[in-house]
Amino acid sequence: MSKQYYILLFIIAGFIGACDDDSKTAEDFKEYEGPTMEATNTEILYSDSAQVRIKLQAQRQLQYGNGDMNFPEGIYIEFFDENGVKSTSIEANQGYYSQEENKYTATGEVVVKNLETGEKLETELLHWEKDKHSINTDRYVEIESDGELLMGEGLEAKEDFSSYEILKPTGVFSLE
Questions:
Q1: Is residue 139 part of a domain?
Q2: Residue range 115-168, pLDDT digits in tens
Q3: Domain tally for the chain?
Q4: What is the CATH number for 80?
Q5: Which phi-psi region, left, alpha or beta, contains residue 153 (left: φ > 0; alpha: ψ -120 to 50)?
Q6: Of 106, 127, 155, 164, whose CB neighbour count within 10 A is largest?
Q7: d(CA 104, CA 110)
Q8: Which domain holds residue 148?
């Protein structure tokens, strides 16, 4: 047998080996929808006139291609007044930021504290709308204020929790 015969046989074997039943269609290739970036121990600062107004901290941050962020291990947000003094905090088990809505959502055990008045809000879901400088929820809320416990469904408040309205109040109890 000649050398050319072996080369031809090798080429044919290559073609046969390349043809298999595992050919992929366009439907088999799905666009990746997971996070494009992951960071640990993150801190995001928002400032106004070169002064920090908001500090957001998270142990783990997942960033997606569309600008959304997920904080699966908790989120802690501090708000500062015009003098740079911490006035309010929000803490939650998980957090999510929607780039399209420019809105943060805190879930799990959500606690908001007004450090000036001592008032404390507890709920399981809270939205912070950064552009509107407001927080809100449609869920059950409890607010501890001046020795009283206020309860109800739904809440609208300023982001610094300096004023608020319970949309459907259900009761007021003295804590003494």
A1: yes
A2: 999 999 999 999 999 889 999 999 999 999 888 899 999 999 999 898 999 999
A3: 1
A4: 2.60.450.10
A5: beta
A6: 106
A7: 13
A8: 35-174
